[in-house]
Amino acid sequence: MSTLLEIENVQSGYGEVQILWGVTLKMEQGRLTCLVGANGAGKTTLLRTVMGLLPAKQGAVRFDGQNVTKTSPHERARAGMAMVPEGRQLFTDLSVLENLEMGATPNHARAAMKQNLEWTFELFPRLKERTNQIAGTLSGGEQQMLAIARGLMAQPRVLMFDEPSLGLSPLFTLNLFQIIRKLKERGLTMLLVEQNVQMALAISDYAYVMNHGKIEIEGEARKVRELESVRKAYLGA
Amino acid sequence: MSHKHFRMIGLGVLWSLLIILVAACAAPASAPQPAQSGASTKPIVIGFTASQTGKLNVESKKQIQGMQLWLDDVKKAGGIKLADGTMVMPDIKFYDDESTTERVQALYTKLINEDNVDFLISPYSSGLAKAAAVVSEQNGKVMLTTGAADDATMEQGFKSTYQLYTPASRYLAGAVDLLGQMDPALKKIAIVHEKDSFSTSVANAANEYAKSKGYDVVLFEGYDTGTTDFSPFINKITAASPDAIMGGGHFQDGTTLAKQLYEKQVPVKFVALLVAPPEPKFVEIGDAANGIIGPSQWEPLVKYSPESASAANLPWYGPTVANFVSAYKAKYNEDPSYHAAGGYAAGLLLQKAIEDSGSLDAAKVQAALDKMDLLTFYGHVKFSTDAKTHGKQDAHSMVYMQWQKGADGKFVSQIVFPPEAKSADAQLRK
Amino acid sequence: MKTTATESRAVVGTRFGERIRLNLQPFYWLMLALILLAAFIPIVTGSSNLREQLFLVLMAVILASSVNIIMGYTGYVSFGHIVFFGIGGYIAFFLMLNYQVHLVPAALVAGIAASGLALLIGIPVLRLRGAYFALATIGINEAVRSFVNNFEPFGGSVGMFFNVQVFEAYGGSRNALWLAYYGIVAVALLTVTASYLIKRSKFGLGLMAIREDQDAAQVLGINPTRYKVAAYTISALFPALAGAIFFFKNGIIEPAPAFNLTASIVSLVAVMLGGFGTVAGPIIGGVVYDRLREFLLTSSIFSSLHVAIAGVLLLLIVLFVPAGLIGELRRRIPILRRFIE
Amino acid sequence: MNLEALLASGIDGLMLGFVYGIAAMGLTLIFGVMRVINLAHGPIIALGMFSVYLLTNQLGLNPYLAIPITVLLGLAFGMVMYFVAVNRVINEPELTTLLATFAVSLIIIGLGTVAFTTTPRALDVNLGALRSGQITVLGTKAVAVLIAILVAAGLYALLYRTRVGKSIRAVANNRSAAEIMGINTRGILAFSFGLGTALAATAGGLIATLFAFTILSGGTFELKSFVIVVLGGLGNPTGALVGGILLGLLEGVFTIFIPVGWVPVIEYVIFVLILLVRPNGLFGART
Fold first, then answer.
1. Helices H, strands E: what count in chain B?
2. Mutate to test the interface with D, among B52, B97, B207, B229 (most CBs of D within 10 A)
3. Average pLDDT of A213-221?
4. B197 and C159: CB-CB below 8 Å?
5. What pLDDT is attached to residue C10?
6. Which of the four pLDDT bands, split at 50, 70 and 90, describes residue B11?
7. Which of A60, B4, B169, C131 is 20 to 30 A from B423 in CA distance terms?
8. In this structure, are residues B383 and B403 in contact, taking their beta carbons and an 8 Å threshold?
9. Which of C2, C3, C7, C8 would best serve as a mutation to test chain A binding (most A beta carbons within 10 A)?
10. Model pTM score
11. What is the tens place of the pLDDT at every residue in B265-285?
């Protein structure tokens, strides 16, 4: 098994406020890794730094053996990194189809857009019904589907989810985790940042627990779930 | 290149520019005038501001060119001779006023106090000239205004300000007379003008004059300075069915108005517009220029001559029209416009006043200007000595030019009025 | 990301100012003394040349400092602030010409009238935010300009002018020009004092809270409308006074120079150049910009290229020193934050 | 009231409105995509005029052939201007970009005055006219309207039918999301800026075939563009075209009803009132 995405001792933050204090994290090809932690632990900051939306003050981000620390987000996206950002960040003025087209911006995705569109619609039949609807008028759950679908249209080599269940009804959340499981079965490498620690640990292969801008615990998700400290802090037991 | 590098380079450029500026500031701001040393030559400086930038740049530039030609001529002649035999060698010093009043007073103060100019010429346009006059009057400097035609400006009790241009009130009076002469049956005039100070003054005066002559002013309206499309307005003019259209404003609107009157085939017999038609560039609008009449302070075809001077019992001074035109063409490779002639004339009349008074003393030169009554290539010049209107131009008259298509299909600017100056008969538009 | 950085800096700066409020007094007196000192040079030397130059400098300072109150402190970019300069000029000129009112009362009436107008239009217009407000102020300036251009009592497009005789009442045009100079010095001191007092007061803190986050300011119990309108009303007073004096001195007023949008933008440039939202910034910016422009204008080396050169300089400053001269100084040498407001 | 004059002026105003619309589309496109009010808009319109004028008079091109070249020149100019003057400050507060573009306008005006002086130029283009009573439809105006419609349709097709156009809308809508989709947002911003200036230059080129102009002539159209943009809704190109037509129509009709000097007063009062009452434009699209 090879490492696809590697984050090494990354420090980052906003302006003069530092949030990440040296984070190291590895994602293996074909596996679902999850990152959990309390609010304000720096999970979103980490994802933004990995994607390049925030510059890393120190440390390195390596994707597929290449150091991408200095590259811009769109270059990382073109290299095969994709992200389903927190709060969906849809193009609310564009139609559903246009959102999906925009997802398929990297060259390889553009070439395979037709097939990808087909299986994405298979995955999300609701979106197919609403192809020409303006994204901003979709319901919350539909918007989350679209955000994931848009990420998939990039035909990414690694897909990172930032709090995908935030604001979803329990039913939708269940649906969401089923979809993530399906994607895992297809062999997609994924990073899942979740507040729903229970479910995240349940479907993940490997887990990181983050606190105060640092990784506190890491290990096989199964094992992490058993840890007393984790159970106490995140699983309410 | 990284942002840091970019920033460094930018800062480098910025600082070096600033350093150059500071260094240039520290260096003597104005290079001293080359001293025309020699026992009997005395250098003097004539100062003014000009609209090198901003909307009045063209007119102002021509005026400076005219003045520069005058300077060349004086230098060629070895200077201006005073009574005591000293030769006065004039030079000019000017700053850009950007066509706005904001800095005019400061610049004239600087000219007077720092550059120690001896005499002043006004900036171009009446508004600027008025602001400058406050300063020059206060300092007791003689100022000749050229390119400033407003009447009211010259009725503010000035003592040492002299106007070269025929005042605005008389700009279109001749056009009204010409219309009557050509066809007394044409009685309906539409007066449409740019809504700025100069054009409004002209239009107001024309309106009164036309009414006093029994004309029916069917439309009297001003349009905003920024107007670019006259089509809707022309429909309104057409609806008033005038025989003649008079007015306009400056070059740009005048050109467009003429062009659109032609395009819309407005059935008027007579069109007289301010400022634009006498400019040689006006003819770029092609056939639309045909038959357009323009009041002009001066035209290359004017017939002022030493002979006409003696006939009118006036002294003649300066070059002949032909000499001026050919010298100007030789130097600038274009026909002189009336702004250029005005620039030359300003220098020339100052020269005459200095010669007459035999002195550089402001009061004496002022007295000479008060007495002045003569004919030059620029025409008849005499200043009002009435206390109320002191310095206002009394004698100079407008000529009226018309673009006429010659036999070869080329357009020629002919003088059509007054009769004693005309080079061709005026034509009514078809 | 840059935005966040600037904002946090500004917030830090404000907090800082609040903490050491009492130590800042000398700065104000120093500023005042410097302006007075400069103002006295022509009075002592009697140089009318210096007087005229300082007149323009002080006018630039007044226009920049007053627009800074609404723009720098409150965060509302008033693009057409020159409208108050024109209105002040017109009202004062009208009174002086038709009712032989002396400059001083005429200017005061004009100032109050302009402020009153700002109060009236401020209430609806200040509801707009960002670019919408900026555009509205342009619209107001143009509407007033074209209105005055048609308004015959103000001379319409011909404007109004004084007979030289008018100046006789002031002891001749020479004395009139000196009077204008004293007037502009007084207005400049007044403007700077107001600018300083506002910045240091609770009112000013409220304005800056509105600038940082209007909705949050509201939560803190600040009535944004009242604060903004008050700032706008105050900021309209000084340009009106300056306009009254300027056109008195010129002896002529016409719509185009009175409501010149470019002059409006120039004062924004001065604010940016010196430092947005500071007291000293607009002063420095006004001085530097005015002197630089005159230098370029009158220098034979740059002759007709001065407009383009001013553009290049401005661009370099905006790109590389966006915080302005004072802002950059305060950023680089933190100790100065104690002394320079 | 003369009905025929009213009709004729309405038609005249309507035709000019299309050209106004194209000019305003450039301004509003740039604002919509990157929240920048381009104060060099007017001078760029003037550059468009001179581009057509010089290509016609110096190289002897047909003016209508000079327009597509002007479009390309406008695009190139805008992209260069973006990288030189805007890119560095794109994330700064509004005032900074206002001043950056104002600086560019000073540079254009300064150099333009030196190069071209302020002597008005006029193109002598004559395409005949259709006439019926007072109503005149000039060939040049009809062609200008046609080109304006083509340009507007082209812009619409670009924005809604092509990938790059959709990317522009995506960037306008959510810049950082577009970036993580792999869209080169800097490139798209530069291209949009170029597109906006190309529209301005095109409008300038069309205006040059109709009226006399100088390097300063863009100023009027810049002010009118502000009015139009507000009528149509800031950031809404389709609205700008409709706003332009509306403004042209208003100007035409008002000219007949009231003294022509009062038309700008009405225009600006309407402008301010609309800002106050419907800041999102008459058609109240999006915020």
1. 12, 15
2. B229
3. 92
4. yes
5. 40
6. low
7. B169
8. no
9. C8
10. 0.88
11. 899 999 999 988 988 888 888
Q: Does residue A141 share a domain with residue A41? A: no
pLDDT in tens, A76-99: 999 999 999 998 899 999 999 999
Q: For residue D209, report the phi and psi dihedrals to the nearest 5 degrees.
A: -75, -10
C chain contacts of residue D88, beta-carbon cutoff 8 Å = 319
- Cα dihedral sign for D130, D134, D138, D144? negative
Residue A234, domain CATH: 3.40.50.300
Q: Tokens 């979106």, residue?
A: A127
pLDDT of residue B18: 57
| Closest CB from D166, D182, D286 relative to A74 | D182
- Same structural domain, B307 and B364: yes
C24-338: which CATH number, 3.40.1000, 1.10.3470, 1.20.144, 1.25.40?
1.10.3470
Close Cβ partners of D82 (under 8 Å, ≥ 6 residues apart): D189, D190, D193, D194
User: Residues A146, A185: one domain?
Assistant: no
Cβ atoms B299, B338 nearer than 8 A: yes
CATH tag for D3-277 (out of 1.10.8, 1.10.10, 1.10.3470, 1.10.287): 1.10.3470
Domain shared by A228 and A125, yes or no? no
Find the CB nearest B232 among D126, D252, D261: D252
pLDDT at residue B4 is higher than 80: no
Question: Between A and C, how many CB-CB pairs are < 8 A?
Answer: 11
- Cβ-count burial of A46 within 10 angstroms (0-12 exposed, 13-18 middle, 19+ buried)? buried
- Rounded to whole angstroms, what are the CA distances from A111 to A101, A102, A105, A146? 11, 13, 10, 20
Q: Is it the case that residue C8 has pLDDT exceeding 70?
A: no
Question: Number of structural domains, chain B?
Answer: 2
| pLDDT for the residue numbered A39 | 84
Closest-CA distance of chain A to residue D91, Å = 14
pLDDT computed for residue B16 by the predictor: 58
Q: CB neighbours of B196 closer than 8 A, spacing ≥ 6? A: B225, B249, B250, C157, C254, C256
- pLDDT attached to residue B428: 92
Q: Dihedrals φ, ψ of D134, to 5°?
A: -80, -15
Average pLDDT taken over every residue of chain D = 91
Last residue of a domain, one of A138, A155, A172: A155
The string of pLDDT tens digits covering residues B176-198 is 999 999 999 999 999 999 998 88
Shortest CB distance from D181 goes to which of A92, A93, A105?
Answer: A105
* Same-domain pairing of B347 and B257: no
Give the closest-approach CA distance of A55 to chain C in angstroms: 10
Same domain, B151 and B218: no
Residue A94 domain boundaries: 84-155
Estimate the crossing angle of helix C224-250 against helix C103-125, to 10 degrees: 150
Counting residues of chain C whose pLDDT is more than 90, the rounded percentage is: 48
Give residue-wise pLDDT tens across range D30-87.
Answer: 999 999 999 999 999 999 999 999 999 999 999 999 999 999 999 999 999 999 999 9
Nearest alpha-carbon partner for C161 in B133, D231, B356: B133
- In whole angstroms, give the CA distance from residue B294 to residue B403: 9
DSSP state of B420: G
The length of chain A is 237
CA proximity to C196, closest of C76, C68, C8, C13: C68
Q: Are C133 and D280 in contact (CB under 8 A)?
A: no
Q: Domain limits of chain D?
A: 3-277
Spatial neighbors of A97 by CB under 8 A, at least 6 apart, are: A131, A132
Domain boundaries, chain C: 24-338
Measure the CA–CA gap between B28 and A143, rounded to whole angstroms: 70
* Tokens encoding B154: 């010259």
